């Protein structure tokens, strides 16, 4: 009983007191009855003895906890007047954490919960004032400054409704991170954060088949190309969690490679991490790395991805995205790698830009090579990634920070989005599902209208679109489309063992024919014959229809040759899209 820290006494300590007092009372009663006979004392004495002993022992030890809890309650009256959305486990843990602070930034006025049976009840002494449908009125009535969303189950619809009410009532909105923090018991004031646009896109958490991934990654030699990029670096972080024998980081960019190697070494000190500087276009360098480290699993994420940039540099796009992929795939086949996973893009579907056409060309070659290889080649195709280098959301945030204007290419442009960890996790999952030559399509959810995305980001910054921050339209960049697709006409799609991953029906391709076409393409790219490169790409990828005419003489002149790529029904669809949080 003297080994407990009573200032943090809990129900477990009360149970220990109950057990000790019960055992001691039973032993005392047994000894008295054994020594003096069964009628030595009235029976009620034994019951009273247990009750008084339990009450006095518990009181003497729990009184400090009671004093400590009540001592800091007055501090709740300081700080910003705050409502907590969700009178459940997360809300209760958050309230306790706030009460532990000697000088809290939050004055908890009440809870808000949609369970009508909780209305009027108290949770840890704080009253449940009503449901979220009355949030606007509650904010005004109680002069609320902050609203904290403490429902970790990820109810995006309710969160959007709460944000709208907070915006109209001029209250600041914050949230807790997620359910994993509740499970781990890590709810703290430091985790209260401003809501991000990622929190509103309705992406459900990814459920991975941990056993299947562990079977092909644990104690294996893993190589990641493009390891310093947005997707490549996240793949490295996710792979490291499964304790591979060694993790080889391959990238052409020295400084970003230095930082990801430093991060992983600090986070996984027992993992052997090998940073290798090299270019995927350099066959000798790639084969040297494969020969020296003998990777069993390869994630190929190295690629040029910026659409407009590659329109100005089509030859470099071909050499890096197609020839680089061919070099790495050939090395994987030559050195008998077990699993090879190539990261692709939705822009490879009916491409109207060079970047998409090069990624589709790489897909075609990998599929053709897989037909006669012992290596399990897999391609994973998905859309835009939130927060990746050069993506729209960091750009919008920077423009808002500077006071605007926010630039949107077109009022009707839409895109699919997913988070970086989600993309990396699904890439890993697809790697163990593939049987060879498969192209997997990730579930991207609903498309998001970029204009609505920009408007919502401005609101989340506490500003008013078109009033505090203007939005201007810059026009589609070279090679951009209004909307992206995930399937090419004629590609069948079938479910897999994972609900967020679909597989396309395999398409037979002749490796010899594809190799010959690529050799010609690489020759034209090496000679910087831009018109020839585009013509050759159209031969390899028949569905590639460039939106611009490429003049062979530098600087390249882009001339629109297809003014109307978008049928009326598609335009009507994208114009009706809104961010779910916007209710016009």
Description of the structure:
The chain is of the alpha/beta class and 584 residues long. The protein has three domains: 66 residues, no CATH class; 121 residues, Rossmann fold, CATH 3.40.50; 291 residues, NAD(P)-binding Rossmann-like Domain (Rossmann fold, 3-Layer(aba) Sandwich), CATH 3.40.50. Helix content is 43%, strand content 17%. The strands form six sheets. The protein has a nine-stranded mixed beta sheet with strand order 10-9-8-11-12-13-18-22-21, with helices on both faces. A seven-stranded mixed beta sheet has the order 3-4-2-1-5-6-7, with helices on both faces. A two-stranded parallel sheet has the order 14-17. Helix 3 links the parallel strand 1 and strand 2. Helix 12 packs parallel to helix 13 and helix 14 crosses helix 16. The protein is extended.
């Amino acid at each position: 009983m003297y080994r407990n820290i009573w200032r943090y006494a809990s129900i477990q300590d009360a149970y220990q007191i109950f057990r000790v007092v019960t055992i001691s009372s039973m032993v005392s009663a047994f000894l008295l009855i054994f020594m003096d006979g069964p009628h030595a004392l009235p029976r009620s004495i034994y019951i009273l003895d247990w009750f008084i002993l339990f009450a006095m022992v518990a009181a003497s030890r729990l009184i400090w906890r009671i004093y400590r809890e009540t001592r800091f309650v007055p501090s709740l009256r300081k700080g910003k007047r705050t409502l907590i959305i969700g009178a459940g486990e997360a809300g209760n843990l958050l309230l306790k954490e706030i009460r532990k602070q000697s000088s809290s930034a939050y004055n908890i006025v009440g809870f808000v919960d949609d369970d009508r049976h909780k209305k009027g009840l108290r949770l840890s002494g704080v009253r449940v004032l009503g449901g979220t449908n009355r949030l606007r009125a509650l904010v005004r009535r109680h002069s609320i400054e902050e609203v904290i969303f403490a429902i970790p189950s990820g109810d995006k619809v309710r969160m959007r409704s709460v944000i709208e009410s907070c915006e109209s009532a001029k209250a600041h909105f914050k949230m807790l991170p997620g359910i994993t923090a509740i499970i781990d018991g890590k709810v703290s004031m430091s985790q209260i954060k401003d809501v991000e646009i990622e929190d509103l896109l309705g992406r459900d958490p990814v459920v991975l088949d941990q056993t299947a991934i562990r079977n092909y990654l644990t104690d294996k030699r893993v190589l990641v190309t493009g390891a310093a990029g947005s997707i490549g670096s996240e793949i490295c972080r996710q792979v490291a969690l499964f304790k591979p024998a060694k993790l080889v980081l391959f990238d052409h960019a020295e400084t970003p490679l230095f930082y990801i190697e430093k991060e992983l070494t600090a986070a996984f000190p027992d993992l052997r991490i090998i940073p290798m500087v090299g270019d995927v276009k350099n066959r000798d360098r790639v084969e040297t790395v494969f020969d020296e480290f003998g990777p069993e699993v390869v994630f190929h994420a190295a690629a040029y991805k910026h659409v407009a940039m590659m329109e100005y540099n089509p030859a470099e796009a071909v050499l890096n995205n197609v020839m680089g992929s061919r070099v790495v795939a050939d090395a994987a086949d030559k050195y008998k790698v077990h699993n090879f996973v190539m990261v692709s893009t939705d822009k490879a579907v009916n491409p109207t830009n060079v970047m998409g056409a090069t990624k589709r060309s790489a897909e075609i070659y990998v599929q053709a090579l897989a037909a006669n290889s012992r290596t399990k080649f897999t391609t994973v195709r998905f859309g835009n990634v939130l927060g990746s280098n050069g993506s729209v959301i960091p750009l919008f945030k920077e423009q808002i920070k500077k006071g605007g204007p926010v630039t949107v290419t077109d009022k009707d442009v839409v895109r699919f989005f997913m988070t970086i960890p989600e993309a990396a996790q699904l890439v890993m999952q697809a790697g163990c599902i593939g049987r060879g030559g498969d192209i997997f399509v990730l579930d991207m959810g609903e498309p998001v209208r970029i204009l609505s995305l920009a408007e919502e980001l401005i609101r989340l910054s506490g500003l008013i679109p078109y009033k505090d921050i203007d939005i201007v339209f810059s026009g589609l960049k070279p090679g951009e489309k209004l909307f992206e697709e995930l399937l090419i006409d004629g590609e069948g799609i079938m479910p897999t063992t994972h609900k967020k991953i679909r597989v396309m029906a395999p398409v037979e391709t002749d490796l010899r024919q594809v190799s010959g076409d690529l050799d010609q393409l690489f020759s034209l790219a090496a000679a910087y014959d831009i018109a020839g490169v585009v013509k050759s790409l159209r031969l390899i990828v028949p569905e590639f229809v460039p939106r611009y005419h490429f003049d062979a003489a530098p600087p390249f002149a882009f001339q629109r040759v297809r003014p109307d790529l978008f049928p009326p029904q598609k335009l009507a669809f994208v114009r009706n899209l809104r961010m779910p949080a916007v209710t016009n």
